Amino acid sequence: MTDQLTRDSCNPHLSVVIEACAGSGKTWLLVSRIIRLLLSGAKPREILAITFTRKAAQEMRGRLDEVLLKLANCPDNELLSELIARGLSESDAQNLVPRARALFEEVLSDPYPLCIETFHGWFSHLLKGAPLNSGVPQGLKLRDDFKRLQDECLEDWWTSLPAKEKGPVRSAYELLVKELKAKNANDLLIGSKGFLTVKAEWLSYISECQKKGVDPLRSVIDQSNLLDIQDPLKTALDDSSNLGNLMALASHLENGGKRDLGYAKAINDGLKKHSHQYDLSEVASALKPAFLNSDYECLAQLLASGDLKKSLKKLPNPDIVTGKQIGRAHV
């Protein structure tokens, strides 16, 4: 962090935006800016610091208390160094030594404390401050058990799907499950990166589209090239040479051991479904055991069994297929 950046960021007379990665010193900078605001005469009640999590808010408050306590008790030369490190000139730091010494007691004794909160915590304070206008019931409390609350809401939602008035929603959900399978559909809706986690952004986007008279889904499609990308499995299976390789591979594997026979069956099942024009996702599911593990990573063990090696050695051109590996990764 450069001296100029520190001076600009801590200057209470400037408005600044800092974008930086984790561990780059943003918390130190925020705490330092709060200290500079207090040194410039701001009252604790006039300062608001908002962060995303309670853990981050607690860390920021803890850091602030530590620094203020240090400024109150450390030797003068160390105090000057701390003030200069936060963007003050040496002469300004000298003049503010008495003020810095008094900050710890001032902040602790103020009946209206400095507010370091999460977004939802701050909004809760605002709602409690105007209960009649906000329409929020008295005794509002923030819920920490988000996962349990989400599960309860989802259970109510799924239970309500058979209702007649939920027909369009049920049809849309069934189509989603048909296209993506149940697990992928639920990940899309309620997963860690699903629609539920970005509900506010999606509703805002829909609102903007409605103002402009634009269909939201059409707008998303127009801005995305994902639908123009050809499925790599379809591209591979449309190539007759790749189909020939798969059939040859399955034929070789049928001469191997028990594990090889399982691989051969998976490949033949996939080829059969492809020839009968099954959905591509079903073809992929059939082929998967021969090439990928449960985490969709390439199988670690691609070594040929003893029986398969003997069979390969009987080929007219055994060098085409390597002695120790069948070459499934190539296929």
Structural class: mainly alpha
Helix percent band: 55-70%
| H-E string | HHEHHHHEHHHHHHHHHHHH
Please tell me what the overall shape is.
elongated
Spatial order of the strands forming the largest sheet: 1-2
How many domains is the backbone divided into? 3
Number of helices: 18
The main β sheet shows up as: 2 strands, parallel
Radius of gyration: 32 Å
| Percentage of β-strand residues | under 5%
Low-pLDDT residue spans: 322-331
Q: What is the end-to-end distance?
A: 51 Å
Mean pLDDT over all positions: 84
Can you characterise this structure?
This protein has 331 residues and is mainly α. The protein has 3 domains: 3-128, no CATH class; 151-228, no CATH class; 233-320, no CATH class. It contains 18 helices and 2 strands. Strands 1-2 form a two-stranded parallel ribbon. Helix 2 crosses helix 3, helix 10 crosses helix 11 (182-190) and helix 16 (258-275) runs antiparallel to helix 17. The longest helix is centred in the N-terminal third of the chain and has 20 residues, at 54-73. Mean pLDDT is 84; it is low at 322-331.
Q: What are the salient characteristics of this protein?
A:
331 residues; mainly alpha; two-stranded parallel sheet; 18 helices; elongated; disordered C terminus
List the topology elements.
Layout: H1 3-10, H2 26-39, E1 48-51, H3 54-73, H4 76-85, H5 90-95, H6 97-109, E2 115-118, H7 119-129, H8 131-134, H9 146-160, H10 167-180, H11 182-190, H12 199-212, H13 216-223, H14 232-237, H15 240-253, H16 258-275, H17 280-291, H18 306-313
Helix pairs in contact: 2-3, 3-6, 10-11, 15-16, 16-17
